[in-house]
Amino acid sequence: MDFTLNEEQLMFAETARTLFADSCTPDHWRRMMEAGTARDDARWASIVETGLTLVLLPESAGGIGLTETDFALITQEAGYVALPEPLVESAGVAAPMLAALAPDHVVLSDPLATIAIAHPANPYIANADSAAAILLERDGEAYLATPDQVTLTAQASIDPFRRLFSIEWNVENATPLGKADWDLALDRAALFNAAMGLGLAQRAVDLAVDYAKERQQFGKPIGSYQAVKHHLASAQVAIEFAKPVVAAAAAEIGHRDVQSRARISHAKLVALEAADKAARTSIQVHGAMGYSWEVDVHLFLKRALALTQTWGTPAYHRARIAARLFTQPMGPDQTFARESDNA
Amino acid sequence: MDLTYTPQQQAFREEVRAWLEAHVPAQPLEHYDATREGFEAHRAWEKTLQSGDWGMVTWPKEYGGRGLDLIQWLIFEEEYARAGAPGRVGQNGIFLLGPTLIEFGSHEQKQRFLPPMASGEEIWAQAWSEPQAGSDLAGVRATCAADGDDYILNGHKIWSSRAVFADWAFGLFRTPGTERHKGMSLIFFPLTAPGVTVNPIRKINGHVGFAEIFLEDVRVPAFNRLGDEGQGWHICMATAGFERGLMLRSPARYQVAAAKLADLWQTRRETADPMLEADVIRAHMNAEAYALSIYQTASRLMAGARIGPEASTNKIFWSEMDIHLHQTALSILGTEAELIPPPGGHDWLDDYIFSLAGPIYAGSNEIQRNIIAERMLGLPR
Lengths: 343, 381
Ligand SMILES: Cc1cc2nc3c(=O)[nH]c(=O)nc-3n(C[C@H](O)[C@H](O)[C@H](O)COP(=O)(O)OP(=O)(O)OC[C@H]3O[C@@H](n4cnc5c(N)ncnc54)[C@H](O)[C@@H]3O)c2cc1C
Description:
heterodimer, A: Butyryl-Coa Dehydrogenase, subunit A, domain 1, 10% strand, B: Butyryl-Coa Dehydrogenase, subunit A, domain 1, 4-stranded antiparallel sheet, 46% helix
């Protein structure tokens, strides 16, 4: 039993943090929003160059074959900057799925390409227009198509960096890839979005803390008032108790049992609740500033709002936790238990 | 990262389980706060426990422990809670003072005080709070005046849990003439020493669970001082770290309660408010999150870290989840919630009443939020 990260993992996360901090600043968001784009090619190139998109790909598909724990640490950092590009969906979910089905596929050989995924859990596909290919599902089988082989209809999202599309497509126009593991795709997406939620949450708190130290009312920084302190402390508590759940979910995802699914669902619920709580708190602490377009907090609120419902609604995830709670032995010796041991 | 138990850890769990199955009393003991008999029955249990060397497994062997690590301690706690073994009557001694003594005490002090603490022969109370010094503990007024190799203690302590029947207390005193955080010392005194008067105070459940203590010229040897004179505040903050952060509330008790709550829900879901299922699930999630967090903390401490501000986030989390869990149970019981004894054998009601103390003791949750805001987030005082 050892619940600590190793040096390498911490270093990789640090690399991602530095990269994002430099390349994904509020100025970058602003320019992208004005231009109406959701992808910054230069930033994506540096993400690719750093190897962040290769983490989960097996070496046979040109990847570096690390684990979900490593990738979750990266997506947490991506959350901290509300990264616009589809790192989670493409590099965390779709590319590994494609690599499992067709490790030599040509799309995988273009490092800059992103892959979108039309998962049955989601009515809309994120960032499908800029993808080199879209993974599609019919009767459990996977298909691959390019955006021009399908009909995409844009559907605006409140998150300016989530470009959503509904899709119509024809089996004849898509390449069949065989039976695919859609459950694993959902588990990964839920996990990485949970990790992203941790980053969103912490940034929202940090923005509010910075503001509360500067902004003066009644002759003192507002951060010296206890009501403000307690709001922020409560948000931080929510973050602190989502973190270990996300970490355990990442470590256990490979078990593919009722416990690992419940853990992922738990992680997604509490991490995005923390993000929502932190973002709303941050807006309140900023006062009217927080309600203005000019201040960045609303980006975190909107991303949290979107991610809360996508890749399984809260009700869906609660049901997966209930499935464990009401069918498996419970109690203090069961924290790390496995379905196979209890069978 | 490896979230599986080693074969040795598994074997340890089996060993604890087997011993507890053979020794845990079949009938629950009377509550230790209710009567002297209840208290003594718990003391006898502590003695039995220590006869198997289970009194305090993390302490060094030479002081009555087993020298085990924190993961083994968590496993022990899990089995202990799972077995429904009696509450630890010496908890303020074994969980708070013990680790502090191990950190700050001299070899002679450890030899003198730890073994009888582990065996329940000497049961300890914590005597820090005063009528005028609650949250603001640095306002303590009780004094320790040096007199040769002795101290003369004077003052008025209050809310001291289990002091009514306990043997010893560890108190916070100050050198006369000192102010606030400076000049404080942590000093042990027998609750039966001449000059000590203990008056029981009833809790809202009717039990004499705490007491006020008057000290009038109580003489104790300087040997009873932990650490240096004037180091008391520093030592108390270390103790508070154990209290809030790790030792006092190990996760297992909440996981047992969450599992019982799930059973309660399943037996009553036909008639109970369907909205409550989400709360039952939430209670389980909270207990698991707390357990995972403590495993993470334990791993970090074993890798050489020290307990930090997570003591404050933990304290808020366990106290709030405890209330939520028990409120949910009472909601499921519905019109039967108020009955004494409660239906179904488990005392949800008394546990609920007890949970309401959680946000007050061990440093109120308001104070913990101040600490998080100022020390973790860096907001101005
Ligand atoms: C069941 C129980 C067992 C206990 N056992 C022990 C024991 O064994 N030994 C012992 O020494 N003590 C014990 N205590 C006492 C406990 O430590 C104190 O109750 C606690 O420190 C709070 O102090 P107080 O009761 O004087 O409340 P006060 O300090 O008077 O606080 C009253 C209210 O004001 C709030 N408040 C105070 N200051 C601030 C501030 N700066 N900012 C915001 N809010 C503030 C508090 O949060 C609280 O809500 C126990 C208490 C309980 C309930």
